[in-house]
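Translate sequence into structure tokens.
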Amino acid sequence: MVGDPGVSTSSIRFVDPRSVADFRTYTARARANDDGGMRLVVVGRVLAAYVCTLGPTVLGEAVPTVLGLRTMALREDAEVDVTVSLGSVLDRLARMGDSDVEFVLPTVTVTENWTGVLPPRSGWTPAGTVESDLLDRAAREGVAEVARSLPARAGAPLVSSARAAVWGRSLAGVPGDVPAGAAFGAMSLGFLAPGTDATLHRNNRWSRISAPRGHVLVRAAAVL
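Result follows.
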């Protein structure tokens, strides 16, 4: 766990307007996946923005928890550890001018189950590389497979079963036991760049895929 949610300064200053635009794009992509929360953690002059792209929706669902992480440089030191809604972040960003770099943090916090245990910041072991194109293909094929397996009016148990079958299985062609949900996270958040490689790391139950535009962190589903 990183810090204690709720510790925060009132605003942060990005290094330039381009960083603000990148943050806006990342937040919009995350909200398109799940209209939930974002955990913002600042240590010194580095912002770490965590979002959840995939996770259990019902008790006992064998779906891995897949988090997205973007880190961005800030102009000044700050102390921040809050979880706020993605909608509130986008609302604050929409109020900023094209040249503004100061982001005023939302004042209302939210509770998300996945924020209770964040990935470790150190102790990662290299586990190989994987082509971004392979991850992109696996994600798109997985989305199509889930869609094909569900009838027009699928109930929660059937949806849960389909999600677990597709996103909980291991990624073919990837070293180690990395769930396919990691590919979905990387693709949906726009982290993959065609023709490049992503690096793999492991830390106990966590796996990390570091792509050119961000990181995907996967916590294996609990074995019941």
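Note: The two ends are 23 Å apart (CA to CA).
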